[in-house]
Specification:
With about 160 residues, this protein is mostly helical. The chain contains 6 helices and no strands. Helices cover about 85% and strands about 0% of the residues.
Length: about 160
């Protein structure tokens, strides 16, 4: 549960607050994202949280008795939630993670104490928009998974 809450919280913070604020801040936002992605362990938090969540979900699925804990409708909703969780984990790792890594490498090309050239800002903004769209998609996949898995018990 802790890893799932971390995963949802990180995705929410990145897609709704950090990403838009960095984009609105212009070059200072690009510098902030560079610091966030290159000087902290923020980038490793997503794969750790999503991986632990999916691993624990798979273990619970195989060790628990779904037939006695959930109604038939609940089992279907739980399955849909689990499917969206797996899709979110795969999308986050294969697509969003790759785009974020590429963005971090682009940011690292520009020294902190020098202005970023206009063509560099354009390239960075394009990559930032790509990352933002992937982060939003991953976030909504996680939300569907969360709703499905949380509501299955009550159906």
């Amino acid at each position: 549960i802790v890893s799932a809450v971390s995963w949802v919280g990180l995705a929410l913070a990145m897609s709704m607050f950090i990403g838009p604020a960095a984009a609105a801040a212009g070059e200072a936002g690009l510098r902030f994202m560079k610091s966030l992605l290159t000087n902290t362990r923020f980038g490793i938090a997503f794969p750790v949280a999503s991986g632990l969540t999916m691993l624990m979900g798979i273990l619970l699925y195989f060790t628990g008795d779904v037939n006695t804990s959930f109604s038939k409708t609940g089992q279907i909703v739980l399955g849909i939630g689990a499917l969206f969780g797996i899709i979110a984990g795969i999308h986050g790792g294969a697509v969003t993670g790759r785009a974020t890594t590429e963005y971090g490498k682009l940011l690292a090309k520009y020294p902190d104490n020098q202005p970023i050239p206009a063509d560099g800002i354009t390239e960075l903004r394009n990559q930032a928009m790509k990352v933002a769209s992937h982060v939003r998609l991953s976030f909504w996949l996680i939300v569907v998974a969360l709703i499905g898995m949380a509501s299955a018990r009550y159906l």
